[in-house]
Design brief:
The complex is a heterodimer of chains A (344) and B (294).
Chain A: E1 7-16, H1 20-28, H2 33-40, E2 43-53, E3 58-62, H3 69-76, E4 84-89, E5 92-93, H4 99-108, E6 110-113, H5 125-129, H6 131-136, H7 140-153, H8 169-182, E7 187-191, H9 199-216, E8 219-224, H10 227-233, E9 236-241, E10 244-249, H11 251-256, H12 261-267, H13 278-281, E11 293-296, H14 301-311, E12 315-319, E13 325-330, H15 331-339
Helix pairs in contact in A: 7-8, 14-15
Chain B: H1 11-39, H2 41-56, H3 59-74, H4 77-92, H5 96-126, H6 128-143, H7 146-157, H8 161-185, H9 189-197, H10 202-237, H11 244-254, H12 257-285
Classes of the chains: A alpha/beta (344), B mainly alpha (294).
Chain lengths: 344, 294
């Protein structure tokens, strides 16, 4: 598999209502969501969304309910038609595809995992998993062979002949994941895929996803309302509020430099040790040559803290991938960065 | 001014209206009656064939055949044994041949209602406009006294099997259509969205998602359809459909209490056999919905 293609969302608007197209200009001229609703009875779903989703990475779109995140992900495979704007996959604009092109695009380029699993209740795990291949017209024997691999990969071996109703929520979502992976599509769309699961199983599924991504390098768009989940999974995070993107960046950027009070309130409760890199906290002005404790650059503070705790030392040399020292980290700075909001 | 009596059309003009409509319909019947009759010939042939097969085959064979079908559908010994007992009693009381005629009639009517009803139901489910058009027609079919539409049917086809068949189907098809429509419309939107997201075409969605998930409701429609066909056989006997209905009609005309009750009970037993067998079959198809994991 070659390098996955990214997704470029440009000036995307979605306005729900009978005359959405005419309302776009009003929104462009600065009309607010509340005003549009009150005066024209149209609902502003998405407001000038611009996101560049890099190929082969996990892009998390985070927001509370009603923020438009589920509407946004449905524009990528056009389950919802946009009012205005572009969704580019490579050089193709998804919004301009004909029905037939769109069907081909959905069959071969995208796969989706749903919050409520959306499995076919009358089909077994195996028959659910082959669904995507079946409608592509792949011969059943070949399809089942490919599906069996992914069923095993998500840990459902032996459950092939069970019906969804006979499985727990976590296992059902594994079927949903296997069904999406069997499609072997570049883009994996996950709409609050783990939100309906209990916390322990959710963590478990996040690990499954991260493991898979390490070998697959798909372009994953992950929707969530849970900041911890966003920070754990996202290579990049976009935060949505009232249909508009209010901040984009890596997890660390968002935690350290929240764009406004809304996001600041959000990130207050975050476990910083798992988000902030040692590189951010270390003293770059000096390096320690040879000897002593070393920590590799690019790991999270929590891991560094663990190393300090295990060795009992108070200072470590941070070394880059090729073994070159790049800075010094001490226990004091590590702890204070983990517990207090770092000031910048 | 007279406020007491409703200003109705005069007797003369009413008579003219009635005469004109009746006259033109009679002319239409004379002109096209044979053609329409011919069109339904294959149906009549099939019904006659089925009837003759059931009547002329040795009774143990027929009994074994019914027991076999009921067991294959329900996979329940109790229902199968009940079927054998009921049919044997019917035979003992001398109603075997009439019962076979009625079963043949109901089978053909039900098949016809399924073949016509399911596609119409699918159309209705796919378009709100079709639903708005078809619904009042179904209301009419269900509430119009059957004797009323027997009149034009008899005028076209005369007395016999085919007019009976048509009258029964008109009466029995509405629940089939309604429940197919309802079943498809009730399919979970999330699952449909998933089917869309994987790039299903319209027909793939229909075959893989909508029809299978609507199946329990469609089965209920088939069940209703059978029950209504059976309840119609007495009315159909008035236009020459032979079978248990005719026995009942005969009993009413001559005040034969026992004969009436026996034929009535025979109809009831067939209804129960059909009902239990189709319901058990429907339940068996839904095995996947049993919740094993909480």
């Amino acid at each position: 598999m070659g390098e996955a293609t990214g997704i470029e969302i440009k000036n995307l608007y979605k306005i729900f209502g009978p005359n959405g197209k005419e309302m776009v200009q009003k929104v462009k001229d600065g009309m607010s969501k509340a005003e549009l609703n009150e005066k024209f009875n149209h609902v502003l779903g998405l407001n000038d969304i611009n996101i560049s989703m890099p190929g082969g990475k996990i892009e998390v779109v985070m927001g509370l309910s009603g923020s438009g995140k589920s509407t946004l992900i449905r524009h990528i495979n056009r389950l919802i038609d946009p009012t205005d704007g572009e969704v580019l996959y490579g050089s193709e604009d998804v919004c301009k595809m004909s029905q037939k092109e769109l069907r081909e695009f959905r069959r071969h380029k995208t796969a989706m995992v749903f919050q409520k699993f959306a499995l076919l209740p009358h089909r077994t795990v195996m028959k659910n998993t082959v669904y995507g291949l079946e409608i592509q017209g792949v011969p059943m024997k070949e399809a089942e062979k490919r599906a069996a691999r992914w069923i095993a990969r998500v840990g459902l071996e032996g459950f092939e002949d069970h019906y969804p109703n006979q499985l727990s929520g976590g296992m059902q979502q594994r079927v949903g994941l296997a069904r999406a992976l069997t499609n072997d599509a570049d883009i994996l769309l996950m709409d609050e895929a783990f939100s309906a699961l209990d916390p322990l199983i959710r963590m478990d599924m996040q690990s499954v996803l991260l493991d898979l991504q390490e070998e697959l390098h798909k372009t994953i768009v992950f929707i969530t309302h849970d900041l911890d989940e966003a920070l754990r999974l996202g290579d990049k995070i976009a935060i949505l509020r009232d249909g508009a993107v209010i901040q984009q960046g890596t997890g660390q950027e968002i935690v350290l430099r929240p764009a406004d009070q809304y996001i600041a309130d959000f990130v207050k409760e975050v476990n910083r040790g798992r988000v902030i890199l040692v590189d951010t906290v270390m003293d770059r002005t000096r390096t320690v040559e040879e000897g002593g404790l070393t920590i590799s650059s690019g790991i999270m503070l929590e891991e560094a803290a663990k190393t300090f705790a295990e060795t009992g030392l108070g200072e470590a040399s941070v070394v880059s991938g090729d073994g070159r020292p790049v800075g010094v980290l001490n226990v004091q700075d590590t702890i204070s960065a983990m517990v207090t909001p770092a000031t910048h | 001014m007279d406020w007491i009596e409703f200003p109705s059309l005069s007797r003369g003009s009413l008579l003219t209206i009635k005469k004109t409509i009746d006259g033109s319909f009679k002319e239409f019947t004379r002109a096209y009656g044979d053609l329409i009759d011919k069109f339904f010939d294959p149906l009549q042939d099939f019904l006659v064939l089925l009837e003759r097969l059931l009547i002329t085959s040795p009774w143990p064979l027929v009994l074994a055949f019914f027991a076999g079908i009921v067991f294959l559908m329900s996979r329940k010994v109790s229902i199968t044994v009940g079927t054998v007992i009921a049919l044997s009693l019917i035979g003992v009381f001398g109603l075997w041949e009439d019962t076979m005629r009625t079963i043949a009639m109901v089978t053909v009517c039900t098949l016809l209602a399924i073949v016509l009803g399911i596609p119409i139901g699918i159309f209705m489910a796919r378009s709100d406009r079709v639903q708005r058009l078809v619904n009042p027609v179904l209301d009419l079919m269900q509430t119009m006294p059957s004797f009323v539409y027997l009149i034009p049917v008899v005028m076209i086809f005369g007395i016999g099997k085919v007019p009976g068949l048509i009258a029964v189907v008109i009466y029995a098809i509405p629940p089939m259509i309604r429940l197919t429509n309802l079943g498809i419309r009730l399919v979970d939107q999330d699952v449909l969205e998933a089917a869309d997201a994987f790039g299903s075409s319209g027909s793939q969605k229909l075959m893989n998602v909508q029809l299978p998930l609507a199946l329990p409701t469609i089965m209920a429609g088939i069940n209703q359809c059978i029950m209504m066909s059976l309840s119609m056989v007495v009315v159909a006997s008035m236009i020459g459909v032979k079978g248990l209905g005719q026995e009942v009609l005969n009993a009413i005309n001559n005040q034969y209490l026992t004969a009436g009750v026996l034929s009535g009970l025979a109809i009831v037993s067939i209804a129960i056999i059909f009902d239990r067998a189709t319901q058990a079959y429907g339940k068996r198809l839904q095995k996947h919905s049993e919740v094993v994991h909480g």
